């Protein structure tokens, strides 16, 4: 049907073939023509059909819409008000090529990988941030092309060009209001002061979807620290990671900066929060309006070399360690780089090595580690890199 979304699962072909074989009649088998067959489609009212759809996983809902014209009509009506849809765990989209934005999305509900396209993104190294079903992409070259989209329904919208010049380092974060579906986009730009390696200009630019306008509430100069590409919005506060550039090495090469963006008219200033230990990298995520950090733990004598991975939650500006990755999972990645990809939503955290498609999940609620099913891709060349991001699969929200 025109306008429908194609979903391809790499684990369904055998099942569908088996189901077809099970229902094929053998040659010579007689059919009792006297038995009256009543179509379920005839006796099933629309409201009950919508109720059944609400219990299905996202992929199954789209497939059900292809059964017939009536089901497609009910599906479109269901999309306009999917209030009864059961909560879905966040998916993880893994880019499988460094040159093309193609990849596969992992559905932890069905433990399957689905092949989906992202036609609104240029390359896999764009800046990416997600919140409540929406994903924002920003180009990595000029940092001026921004696209807000829903990867499930394929609806998208290009945003206005952010103010300011191109930057040496940039970080992107978004936050979606669950009631109004309005969203806030924040970009942290970091530029080296000309002729001074130790000083960096930091500027924060905020976009509000209701007013469709950018503001620049803060510009400041940091000494000995520069911004990076890691940030998140949590409870109206923008958090971003900064990196030490001073002359004398510090024990902790990372720090966290907090800035309140919930009140645009307040004279808020930047505040620094130390990291819990020496880190090789830090990944920030909003988990039910709690700031969670997944970090690579550096060796005491060689802080730039990873020895493990920890998960912390920020409580009253103090880090509380939740768990450390067991050694068997850490070694399960094989050769693990000092930096890695990690993102999470609600209770589920994804961790992925850049050097392989292996994907590990951690459930914050039940404190359980689990490998995802193997991604249906393999390395095409030794230095091929993989990365990804997680997002909530939602039908009711559009940019």
From TrEMBL:
Alphabetic keyword roster: Ubl conjugation pathway
Entry superkingdom: Eukaryota
Coiled-coil region(s): none
Keyword check for Lipid metabolism: no
InterPro entries xref list: F-box-assoc_interact_dom, F-box-like_dom_sf, F-box_dom, FBXO31/39, Gal_Oxase/kelch_b-propeller
Pathway: Protein modification; protein ubiquitination
Keyword Transferase: no
F-box domain mapped to chain residues: 44-94
PANTHER family according to UniProt: F-BOX FAMILY PROTEIN (PTHR10706), F-BOX ONLY PROTEIN 31 (PTHR10706:SF130)
Protein name: F-box/kelch-repeat plant protein
Organism of derivation: Medicago truncatula
């Amino acid at each position: 049907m025109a306008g429908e979304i194609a979903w391809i699962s790499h684990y369904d072909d055998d099942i569908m073939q088996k189901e077809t074989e099970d229902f094929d009649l053998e040659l010579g088998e007689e059919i009792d023509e006297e038995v009256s067959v009543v179509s379920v489609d005839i006796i099933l009212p629309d409201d009950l059909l919508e109720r059944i759809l609400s219990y299905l996983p996202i992929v199954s809902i789209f497939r059900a819409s292809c059964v017939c014209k009536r089901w497609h009509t009910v599906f479109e009506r269901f999309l306009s008000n999917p209030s009864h849809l059961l909560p879905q765990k966040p998916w993880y989209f893994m880019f499988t090529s460094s040159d093309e934005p193609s990849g596969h999305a992992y559905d932890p509900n069905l433990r399957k990988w689905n092949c989906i396209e992202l036609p609104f993104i240029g390359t896999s190294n764009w800046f990416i941030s997600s919140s409540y079903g929406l994903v924002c992409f920003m180009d990595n070259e000029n940092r001026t092309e921004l696209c807000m989209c829903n990867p499930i329904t394929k609806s998208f919208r290009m945003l206005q060009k952010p103010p300011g010049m191109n930057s040496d380092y940039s970080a992107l974060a978004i936050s979606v209001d669950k009631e109004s579906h309005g969203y806030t986009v924040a970009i942290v730009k970091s530029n080296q002061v000309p002729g001074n390696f130790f000083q960096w200009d930091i500027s924060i630019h905020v976009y509000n979807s209701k007013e469709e306008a950018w503001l620049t509430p803060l510009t400041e100069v940091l000494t000995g620290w520069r911004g990076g590409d890691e940030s998140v919005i949590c409870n109206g506060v923008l958090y971003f990671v900064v990196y030490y550039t001073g002359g004398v090495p510090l024990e902790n090469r990372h720090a966290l900066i907090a800035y309140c963006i919930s009140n645009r008219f307040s004279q808020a200033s930047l505040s620094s929060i130390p990291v819990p230990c020496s880190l090789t990298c830090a990944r920030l995520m909003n988990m039910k309006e709690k700031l969670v950090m997944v970090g690579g733990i550096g060796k005491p004598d060689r802080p730039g070399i990873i020895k493990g991975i920890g998960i912390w939650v920020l409580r009253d500006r103090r880090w509380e360690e939740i768990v450390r990755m067991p050694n068997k999972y850490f070694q399960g990645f094989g050769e693990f780089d000092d930096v890695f990809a990690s993102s999470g939503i609600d209770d589920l955290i994804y961790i992925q090595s850049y050097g392989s498609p292996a994907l590990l999940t951690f459930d914050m609620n039940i404190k359980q580690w689990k490998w995802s099913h193997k991604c249906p891709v393999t390395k095409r060349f030794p230095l091929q890199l993989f990365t990804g991001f997680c997002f909530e699969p939602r039908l009711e929200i559009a940019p």
